[in-house]
Amino acid sequence: MTGCFSTVLLLVLAVLTMVTLIRWFEQITDAVDHDHWSKVSLLIAVPLTAWLFESKVAAGRPFAVPRHEPIRGFGDTPSPPPVKKKRMAVDPDAIAKLKQKMKEQGMLEEKDEG
What we know:
By secondary structure, the protein is mainly alpha-helical. It contains 3 helices and no strands. It is elongated.
């Protein structure tokens, strides 16, 4: 039980340390670029103060999505026009020729002729 807990705790501390180092390097670089030497000396003396300063790097979405705002569109969708299917004219002579040909090839039996 303690082995599992200590492993999870070690992983959490490792992730927290890595994120702290990333924030520290970001804050140090920003402070040097803007000549904020008091901030640099504070970050060098107490590295965990990197969490007190606002981060300049945006992770994820740069601005929040409005919570209760409906989705905006371009009005109602137009209803599709009624679809009219064109039916082909049935040629009884062509159907008779096709049935005769199918009988000759053995594809159509006498009882299937119906």
